[in-house]
Amino acid sequence: MKVLVVGGGGREHALAWKLRQSPLVSELYAAPGNAGIAALADCVPIDSSSTVELGDFAEKVRMDLTVVGPEIPLTLGIADEFEKRGLKVFAASQAASEIESSKVFAKEFMARHEIPTAPFTSCASHEEALATLKKRKKTDYPVVLKADGLAAGKGVVIADSAADAEGAVADIMKRRKFGTAGDRLIVEDFLRGREVSFFALSDGEFVFPLVTCQDYKRIGDANRGPNTGGMGAFSPSVHVSQEIFEQVVEEVFVPAIRGMDREGRTYRGVLYAGIMLTEQGPKVLEFNARFGDPEAQVLLPRLKSDLAELLLASVEKRLDKIDVLWHRDRAVCVVMASEGYPESYQTDRPIDGLDKAGAMPGVTVFHAGTKRSENGPILSSGGRVLGVTALAASFDQARSAAYKAVESIHFSNRYFRKDIAQEAVAFEHRSHAGSASAASARGAES
Ligand code: AMP
Ligand code: GLY
Fold first, then answer.
1. What pLDDT score does 439 carry?
2. 188 alpha carbon to ligand 1 midpoint, in Å?
3. Cα–Cα dist 259/281, whole Å
4. What is the full DSSP assignment across 359-386?
5. Ligand 1 centroid to residue 375 C-alpha, Å
6. Which atom of ligand 1 is nearest to the CA of 146?
7. CATH classification number, 125-183, choose in 1.10.10.60, 1.10.10.1400, 3.30.1490.20, 3.30.479.30
8. For the residues 245-259, what does the mean pLDDT come to?
9. pLDDT digits (tens, 9 = 90+) for 268-311
10. What CATH fold (topology level) applies to the domain 194-431?
11. Does this model's pTM top 0.85?
């Protein structure tokens, strides 16, 4: 089978790495890929947002399956473009991916289908947003403001006071800090609790839950500083019991997949639910129409079964007939970034120690922002540069292995968090029974 991976970050490296292990995959391509993916796949220099060009390429090569990583091509309709040409593609359609690209659609959709989420008001103008804020009492703060469109993960503001909220509303709706994403705004209640990333595959009908992950969104240790794409992750989450897992499947994924189908937006692909575990039960913070990054870098290494077979089953609408196995092992991923990320940072720094780190037991080094220089060495080329994942019998061992590998990789402006998976290790030490692990994810652990 000829398979194309669209994208060029850590998530796509993890997808390519797992697909390469499949006996079904004879030829693997990536567009545009990166220096790490290039060791596994033929990289073609087509941007992941050039959906027509990607369609032309896939048609020419007679691609048997295309797997799309990032959100931009989804919102540009890559699934629709490929399906029109009769090409198999693992990607949510343009209409389905609106669950990620429009916060207003997502929130109103959740309200229509009684999916638990924070109470909210959607506002279509600056005046409406100010009037909504005026109704809030002092005790109703912090408040969460969400610009409507994709804003590279930066469109969410948590405001501690009415004055801060009014300032942020003006930035978004008047000064258009996030462009047209500021046409509409969600004002929603702040939720307290633990945040967990849940994933499920769907073939339009059947819901196939995957294992849980926890992501570290803030740049600094102890969750300080600005939000990023994600600075590390571990899997499984240590806060999800079997009962909570089943509740999320029943109250979130099943009504979401049914609801999308009923609304003529049949959902095929992977659905990511960012869930807050609150005292009142699990509530959806956001939906994404793709795998999380870095979550994919801990989720995919824990999958024992064939990824190509699984994704193909989703595309061919036979997920109900498939079963998978998961590794019982715990996975920890530490992201190595360029100092200054998520603001400005420098690139083109030579990276040393990649081979040594990659040869350590249980360790896989996924590339995010890397490129190969003309005379050989691999250079940094982005904010998030590498995702160093380790798989081991315990979180303690996986965390130690990941950090040992990180310490052996050098580039002059490297930055990484020091506290990834610390809470998982602490949890493990407290409860000898271990976490709920795969809980009721489809498939058993072995
Ligand atoms: P979103 O893009 O909607 O997931 O928002 C980005 C981040 O903002 C989330 O991962 C949460 O950490 C935080 N967040 C979003 N909505 C809320 C909320 N209602 N209460 C508390 N934190 C939130
Ligand atoms: N790690 C969060 C995301 O992929 O959106």
1. 54
2. 10
3. 21
4. TSTTEEEEESSEEE-TTS-EEE-SSEEE
5. 44
6. 3
7. 3.30.1490.20
8. 97
9. 999 999 999 999 999 999 999 999 999 999 999 999 999 999 99
10. D-amino Acid Aminotransferase; Chain A, domain 1 (3.30.470)
11. yes
